[in-house]
Every structure is written in structure tokens, then in C-alpha cells.
Amino acid sequence: MRKLFVTGIGTDVGKTIVSAILVEALKADYWKPIQAGFDNGTDTQLVKQLISNNITTFFQETYLLKTPASPHQAASNDGVEIELNKLILPNCSNKNLIIEGAGGLLVPLNNNDYVVDLITHFDCEVVLVSRNYLGSINHTLLSIEALKSRGLKIAGIFFNGERNKSTEEIILKKHDFPFVEYINQEEILTKEIISAYSLKLNKI
Predict the structure, then answer these.
(1) 66: annotated active-site residue
(2) Catalytic residue among 3, 32, 86, 191
């Protein structure tokens, strides 16, 4: 069983889309351990809507928090504290597991732990999602350094949104992990679009 933790260089960079593509491509199970904010539905519900296979198991969030904010703040607002020892990997039998993170790597979970500590806690490989915008080179390279300094394995990187060849080249040329896929700026997401991306995946 492979455990792939999908994280991003920030918030709203495409982690849920990438998670859906990976779930579909690998016929994997899915888990979003911490969901902060769900007025418009949860990420689990969105991935369910976007995949076509009927064998994926969706596991319940350990922390389902009301406020769309940093997990530590959302938890505080709900009168709870996120504890790493309460975040236990679900039993997936022999299937792969896609775990979707919350925000970026140094988003705080509590007063001591960050999302990157959750990756170490689960002993996962990492799939990094980058989105092209002014400043994304810095944010992407800092995210890579944070992962490598902790000895975490990067299984690959996705680029999401409007293409910028110069940005992508400078990020990729210094690192030996694979580029996985480009995701276009899709106006609407459907099962068919996710399926089409999943069929192109061969580097993860």
C-alpha cells in the first residue's frame, strides 16, 4: 500500500483536484483528516462527485471544523484541540491511500505542530501541488526545501492553472523528483475531465 499525502504551496492551489485525479488513476481510497470550513460542502464530498470508479472508500474526517481558517484557529473556535496522536491512518487493506492536507506545509494544527509534522507522523510520500502566480517560485522552492530538510520523499509535483514555462523550468531543474502533470485552468470540473487527466498519469 502506498500512502500519498497531497499538499500545496498554499491555500486554493488545487489539492482537491489533484487528489481526485490520483484517486481515480490509482483506484485509491481517500481521506481528508482535517477539514476546516464546510459551508459549501467538504473536500470529501467534492472528490466523491468527481471520480468515476466504484471501489474507492471515503473515510470520515477526524476533525470537521466549522470555520474556514487555519486548522489551529478553526479548532480553537470550535473549542477543540487537534492532537497528532488522535490522527490514525485508516485501514485500507491492500489499496493505496490518498491523504489530502489542509493549506500549505507550515499551516499550524495547534501550538506545536504543523501540516508537515502530520506527513512525518503518517510516514507518507508527498505529492506537491504548485499553482503559477507571482511569487509561486519562491513558495514552491521553500516548500520543497521544507520537505527535503525533514527527509520526506517527494513522489512528484503537479502544476495547476495558467502555464508559465519559465517558472516551471526553474523549479524543476534543481530537483530530481518527477514532474507528474499539468492541470489546465478548467472553467468547470466534471467526472469526465478528472478521468481524462487520470488516464495520462504514468509517473507516480
Answers:
(1) no
(2) 32
